[in-house]
Every structure is written in structure tokens, then in C-alpha cells.
Design brief:
The chain is of the alpha+beta class. It has a six-stranded antiparallel beta sheet, with no helix packed on it. It has a six-stranded mixed beta sheet with strand order 14-15-16-17-18-19, with helices on one face. Strands 1-20 form a two-stranded antiparallel sheet. Helix 3 runs antiparallel to helix 5.
């Protein structure tokens, strides 16, 4: 069968009927506290309630798994999940409350109990949903949402979140390969395709109910609010914090907080980065937990060993300019507050000017840059359409002035043809690392100024995929990158070491080939069983 899209080197390239060895852990078995008794031993083809036939596995959680089923009575599809979301779902259903946010919550259509070897399992039935927003973001060529999609999505999500908070619910979270065991079969999950429709809030397994304050370690590691890190009481405003942090994941293409030291999650590093972006916390906040004494003195001065990184939201936000840039920063300033009570509510954020901008006035997500004409080499003028700029932000936590990796995605047009290209600069270039620190916006403009004068006509570009050109200082490699002309002053730092830069061409391992993508109408469907992880396309090009 053909896959709706193909990810290079992903699990999708493996035989869908592959039988795995028993000693290889798969999916839920890799969870730290995995207990097989928590999971009903579902098998493909099973029929529940004499009506719902299992087709494939969609996913799993700490104590539940999700399966796509066919409704044999109505000839429709539903998703079945064994879960502990029942209490939250019943609470929401029991309220006589009219609110437009209900359409943006995934609530169960039906619940029933099934008996397994380990006892009873509660099963909830849902209408099937499409892919997650993270999967949607990763499927885009530049792995980032554009401004219009971010704005529209956030308004709808906030409407749903406002309903949850008004009902005193805190969300807090945010044929397949198989392994046959003696008492069960563990399957690999399948992704859902891109679908039409609105976003929904789901996964209420960790949600809390009630007006009172709560305690406990909740939220995924990098998205934890400061009150959670410091063991304070928390309420629905941790959901608001998550909304702000997720902007960076979806729109900027990186995490807002690095929060790692020696590749291990570190609370001190996490808090130091918060101080860098939000300023020092007020004394009233520090008085709410004894843990604060490890990091601040009685006057609120930072005393921990980890230095405060030199960064700001203004410098790190590099996709928008002018009024759009100011509005996004103002939106985030309403969210990223030390004191939870000072964060805006979901209802207040819905009408923020950044989200209220009209779709008919979208942010230009690309700019065209004309490459200089070289007489005698070509008989037409190539054109570049800049797409997304990205850079590795590990340098912020490590105190380095420049990123170790930066890349620019673009479309190269020439003689009626076009190629998707990603130019990646690896390592700290010697003459750049010692210069005065620049903002992300300045680095983007500098890199684009260099990228637009590269002679792409001299390179072996790959058709119908994403060509990645990797540049690094490697004198021992023979092939140097060629430029059409001298770079502008804004890109002179990089152009100054062009004689030392060497290039390597490969197919971008993160690319996704869309079989319905209008960019490549001639692209044939590919049988996933015929793919290999590494194919030589041309001499030395993989």
C-alpha cells in the first residue's frame, strides 16, 4: 500500500507486517513504570460491545492505549481508549453551561467496561481526530506554523481552554509492526493523516477539577511553570503558561527554554533562563516556597552558580518585524509572568490584538531575493524565495555569542524549474565567534545576505525533495562553495571566510514528501516497503 507521506529514515519505511523479537521493547513497554496489567491486550480484529471492530493502533499513554475502530452498525469510524479521563468527562458533561468552547474539546461519545486478564478496563469512545499539532508542525517543509495559522489556532484553543477554566478544570498537559508475547500482542502505532476541521483540546488524563489550589509535579519538563518547578501551589494559570511556551515550539521552530545542563534536565538552568527572559521575580513570589532560597537571597538577587544567560525575547524572536513583532511580544508579555495571578486569563487572551489581526492581512512569510546575473554563465536570472530561518539555541544556555548551527530554507527558481533548498552552516566560524554578539534578527539578515549569492547552478541539486547544502570549515575537503558575486556588507563576516568553507550535499533527513503537494505535481507515489534509509542518488550524494 502507499503511504500518504514518507519520512526519510522513519518507522514508516519499515515493513508494516514486521514481527519484532520478544526482547525488543516497543511503545508502551518503554515507559519507566510500565505494567502490562494496566493495558487491555487488544488484538487487531477484536470486536467490543458486539459493534466496534479494531482496525489499528493510534497511540498510547501512561495507563491507556488508543485504537481506531469501525462502527459495524453505522459503518463509521471511532477511536476507543482505555483511560482514566472518565471523571473529567463526566464533570464537563454534567454542567448546564452553554459556551462556544465545547466544540473545541474532545469529549467521549460513549463509555463502557471490558474485562481483561488484569481486571476491568474503562473504555471511552471518541470521534477520530487528525494528527497532533506537533505532527502538523513537523510535516510542514520549514517545521513551523505561519502567523495566520498560529493566530487562528490559538484563538480556538483559548476558547476551549476558557470553558475548562470556567468549569474549574486544569488541563496540566499538554497493520503495523508488532511483537507477539505469550498473553498479548504489542503493536506499533499509526499516525493519522492531515484532515480538515478545527483544533481540539484532548487528553484529560492528568486534568484536575476544583476551585482550590493544587500541588504536585505536573506539566512536561520544558513547559513547567515556575510555581511547579519550585513546589508551590498552582491553579489554572499553569495552562496559560503552557500556551505562551508553545508559541516558540510552533512558530519559532525551537524551545523557549533550553533547561538542560550536560544534556540533563536542570531546574537551576531552567530558572536562570526564566530570569533572563522575564527579569528577576518579585519578593512576594519568592516567599511562597523554601526552595527559592537555593537560587535567590533575601533581597531577590540571584545566588545560584549557573550564570544568567544574555538573551531577551526581543532578540530571540526573529520571524516577524515591525508592528507584528511588537504585538507578538506584547501577547507573550501577558503570559510570561512570575506571579500566576498576573497572567492574563484565556478569555482576555482571546481578544488580544495579536490574535485579532485579520487573515486578509497575513504576515509575509517569505521574501524574494534576486541573485546577480553572471554574463556567459546563464541566460536567465535565478530567483530565490526565502522561507524559514532557524538556528540552534543551545548557545544561549552555554553563553556562546553565536549559534553552532544555522539554516535557511528557500525555493530556487531557474528556467521554469524550482528546487527546495536548505542551506546549513555548521560550527562557530572563526571570524564570527569573536565578534560582538548580534540579535537573532541581525544574524538572520546576515545569513540571508550570504545565502542569496551562492552559485546554486554549480551544485547537484536534487529534484522533488529538499536538498540540504551543509557548509563548514573543513580545509581538507576539496570542494569549496562558489559565489555569484561579492556579498553585501551585512554578510561580509561569513563571506570573509568563504575560501575556507567546504560543502556537502544530501537529502534533508527531516523532509517530508507530500504526495498531494502542488509543489511537485509529477511526484509518483512510493511504496514504503521499497524504501531504504540510505540511497545513493549520484556520486557521493545520498
Amino acid at each position: 500500500m502507499s503511504s500518504p507521506f514518507v519520512r526519510n529514515g522513519s518507522a514508516a519505511t519499515q515493513n508494516v507486517h514486521q514481527l519484532l523479537p520478544r526482547d525488543v521493547k516497543l511503545e508502551e513497554e518503554e515507559l519507566p513504570d510500565y505494567n502490562s496489567q494496566y493495558f487491555y491486550p487488544v488484538r487487531l480484529g477484536d470486536v467490543f460491545e458486539s459493534r466496534y471492530q479494531v482496525i489499528t493502533k493510534l497511540g498510547f499513554g501512561v495507563g491507556s492505549s488508543v485504537w481506531l475502530c469501525r462502527d459495524l452498525e453505522q459503518q463509521a469510524h471511532v477511536a476507543a481508549q482505555s483511560t482514566n479521563e472518565v471523571v473529567v468527562m463526566r464533570h464537563i458533561r454534567s454542567t448546564d453551561f452553554e459556551h462556544p468552547g465545547e466544540r473545541y474539546l474532545r469529549l467521549a461519545l460513549k463509555e463502557f467496561t471490558i474485562c481483561g486478564p488484569g481486571g476491568e478496563h474503562r473504555c471511552l469512545l471518541y470521534a477520530p481526530q487528525g494528527m497532533t499539532y506537533t505532527e502538523l508542525r513537523n510535516s510542514l517543509p520549514n517545521r513551523m506554523l505561519d502567523k495566520a495559522l498560529l493566530q487562528q489556532s490559538y484563538q480556538l484553543i483559548l476558547i476551549g481552554l476558557d470553558l475548562l477554566h470556567q468549569l474549574d478544570v486544569v488541563h496540566t498537559e499538554h497493520p503495523s509492526a508488532r511483537k507477539v508475547l505469550q498473553d498479548r500482542t504489542v503493536y506499533r502505532s499509526h499516525s493519522m493523516p492531515i484532515t480538515h476541521g478545527t483544533p481540539v483540546l484532548c487528553d484529560f488524563g492528568g486534568a484536575r477539577i476544583g476551585e482550590r489550589k493544587h500541588r504536585g509535579d505536573v506539566m512536561p519538563d520544558f513547559y513547567r511553570a515556575p510555581e511547579v518547578i519550585l513546589g508551590m501551589e498552582w491553579d489554572c494559570k499553569i495552562d496559560i503558561w503552557s500556551i505562551g511556551v508553545m508559541v516558540w515550539d510552533l512558530f519559532e521552530g525551537s524551545r523557549l527554554f533550553y533547561a538542560l545542563k550536560n544534556h540533563i534536565l536542570d531546574d537551576e538552568q531552567h530558572l536562570a533562563e526564566m530570569v533572563a527572559l522575564m527579569g528577576p521575580p518579585p519578593l512576594s513570589f519568592l516567599q511562597r516556597s523554601e526552595k527559592c532560597r537555593k537560587y535567590w537571597d533575601a533581597e531577590g538577587r540571584w545566588i545560584a552558580a549557573t550564570p544568567i544567560p544574555e538573551q531577551s525575547l526581543d532578540a530571540r524572536e526573529g520571524r516577524l518585524e515591525g508592528e507584528d513583532h511588537k504585538l507578538l511580544l506584547d501577547f507573550l508579555s501577558k503570559i510570561l509572568k512570575w506571579l500566576p495571578e498576573e497572567r492574563a486569563s484565556a478569555q482576555e487572551l482571546i481578544s488580544h490584538p495579536f490574535l485579532m489581526q485579520r487573515a486578509e492581512q497575513p504576515q509575509r512569510t517569505s521574501t524574494s531575493a534576486m541573485v546577480n546575473y553572471v554574463p556567459g554563465y546563464i541566460d536567465s536570472t535565478p530567483q530565490l524565495d526565502f522561507k524559514a530561518y532557524w538556528e540552534d539555541e543551545d548557545h544561549l544556555a552555554q553563553g556562546e555569542p553565536e549559534p553552532n548551527v544555522r539554516s535557511q530554507t528557500l525555493v530556487y527558481h531557474y528556467k521554469g524549474k524550482k528546487w527546495w533548498i536548505k542551506v546549513t552552516l555548521m560550527g562557530l566560524i572563526s571570524c564570527i565567534s569573536n565578534e560582538q554578539k548580534a540579535s537573532k534578527r541581525e544574524r538572520r539578515k546576515e545569513f540571508q545576505g550570504f545565502v542569496k549569492v551562492i552559485n546554486y547552478g554549480s551544485l547537484a541539486l536534487l529534484d522533488d525533495t529538499m536538498t540540504e547544502i551543509i557548509l563548514r570549515e573543513e580545509p581538507e575537503v576539496a570542494t569549496a562553495i562558489e559565489l555569484y558575486c561579492e556579498a553585501t556588507d551585512s554578510a561580509s563576516r561569513i563571506a570573509g571566510v568563504v575560501s575556507k568553507l567546504r560543502y556537502q550535499i544530501r537529502e534533508d533527513p527531516l523532509r517530508v514528501i507530500y504526495l498531494l503537494c502542488e509543489e511537485f505535481p509529477s511526484l509518483d507515489q512510493i511504496n514504503i516497503t521499497e524504501l531504504t534509509n540510505k540511497v545513493e542518488i549520484a556520486d557521493g550524494v545520498f
